[in-house]
Amino acid sequence: MGICFKNFSFQYDNLKNPTLKHINLGIGTGEKVLIAGPSGSGKSTLAHCLNGLIPHAYKGKMSGELLLDGEPLYGKSLEAISKKVGTILQDADGQFIALSVGEDVAFAFENDSMPVPHMHEKVEEILKNFSMEAFSEQSPQNLSGGQKQKVAMAGVMAMKTDILLFDEPLANLDPMSGQLAMDTIDALHKGTDKTIIVVEHRIEDVLSHHFDRVVLVSKGEIVFNGTPDEVLRSGVLEENGLREPLYIEVLKNCEIDLKEESTLTDISTLTKYKDKVMQVLGDLKPTQEKDEHEVLLECKNLQFAYDKERGNILKDISFNVYKGEFLAILGNNGAGKSTLLKALTGFCKLDQGEVRYEGQDITKWSIRKRADVIGYVMQNPNHMITKYMIYDEVAFGLRNFGYAEEEVKVRVTEALEKCGLAPYKKWPVASLSYGQKKRVTIASILALKPKVIVLDEPTAGQDHKNYTEFMNFLMTLKEEGITVIMITHDIQLALEYADRAIVLSSGQILADDTIYHVLSQKEVMETANLKDTSISTLARLYGVEDESTFLKQVIQKGREH
């Protein structure tokens, strides 16, 4: 039985063209399926059709059939659908219904009239699976983005639904937490007969976990439906703006033909290509130490606590930021990364320490004054967006600062073009995907032309094609002398673009070095919940002694392609 789409199409009321076109797809009971696709492809719309948000929350025209266990899904109430399909939303804030983490996870148990002592045991057990038991009494709204995602997942895990739908489950999680989340999904699938559907574009992070099938959506249509090994052999991912696993890229960049390989999802089967890879890379020349230039920002002995009971989030942090560099801030969920950026931009008032810009103490500057030199893009775009139309949102800051409308038009147009949003300038923001909304918020900051751009998870929710275009744009800003500071959980992204990385854990700096040296320090990686890239895995399989240099050579080889 399961799920069945028959010649199904859907068009939002505010759009001229269908978002989904002639979908024919069956998902059997107990299957584990990955639905992937570039940003704006329609994959999230497909998910919304399954969980009832379409048509209950998002209105539009539908044709064809959508059946669940042989019965039409439409016509059922949202409550009835939610008893069949449990959903972990990409935007965790939209999912919380209780005042504390424990109460939120307990909601399903309360509905089942579970005895209170048993309920407490079950809630603690589920929270332990996500290393969140210490936060049981806290409000979900006080958590970091990644911690919120864990709580949302824990809440749905408690529901007795036949189908579990995960919409971009890795978007806000640090790498090891993402690994844990996927392990939990694996265990749930193996231990039950539940149908698991994961909507995600981070291919490498999910394909290392067993999936029965991969369904690839592009421009509202299904362009591939097959096994994970088939999708890696086909080259269809790259053709549709998605990134292949890094180790696949490395082998292809070394001119190795993988079309005849039977098992590509298991990296350990590819050790036979060691000699060819090492030959192409040539002599490994040791990486240089970090290259320091003119100091732009100085952070000295920064300390901050939201309240005394929770203790310091930032603990005596000191570091410099250099003019024109690309700095990545890495670390586990709750390490203090977002708080650090808020301290730089003035959103958090420091308890101790100072921030200097070009030698001038700006610690007591207002948020408004700091915005002239430091632009801040928040992790969740919905926390920044205030206007209905995209053009007005990007123009909002300029208008607030009193720019003439002619200048506003020039700057907004330029920012929209640079962020790949020019075709959407007359669209309502609500029509965009999460990843597209992220680009709107980035465009609104770029329009102000700051000297330093601070970005919290700038590529979360964006496919490889879009984030590559955007990151290449950021690199042009870097070449113009603009400094970019970026929090990211995407180790691949940091490896490709960052000059330097600062690693935080428990509010303290663990490492401050070139990205290659940081990622080759096993102890730092483990402490900060950072997951090795498959390039590091390949290096160890090949017995490479100087992992840092191997990383650098592989990335440089990739840039040549």
Automatic annotation (TrEMBL):
Record NCBIfam families: PRK13648.1
Membrane topology, record value: Peripheral membrane protein
Pfam families on file: ABC_tran (PF00005), DUF3744 (PF12558)
Purpose of the protein: Probably part of an ABC transporter complex. Responsible for energy coupling to the transport system.
UniProt keyword list: ATP-binding, Cell membrane, Membrane, Nucleotide-binding, Repeat, Translocase, Transport
InterPro entries: AAA+_ATPase, ABC_Co_transporter, ABC_transporter-like_ATP-bd, ABC_transporter-like_CS, ABC_transpr_CbiO/EcfA_su, ECF_ABC_transporter_ATP-bd, P-loop_NTPase
Protein name as annotated: ABC transporter ATP-binding protein
Sequence intervals crossing the membrane: none
ABC transporter domain location: 3-244, 297-531
PROSITE patterns named among the record's database cross-references: ABC_TRANSPORTER_1, ABC_TRANSPORTER_2
One example GO MF annotation: ATP hydrolysis activity
Family: Belongs to the ABC transporter superfamily.
Record-linked Gene3D superfamilies: P-loop containing nucleotide triphosphate hydrolases (3.40.50.300)
Lineage, highest ranks first: Bacteria, Bacillati, Bacillota, Clostridia, Lachnospirales
Keyword Ion transport: no
Organism annotation: Zhenhengia yiwuensis
Key word Membrane present: yes
GO cellular component: ATP-binding cassette (ABC) transporter complex
Domain of life: Bacteria
Subcellular location: Cell membrane
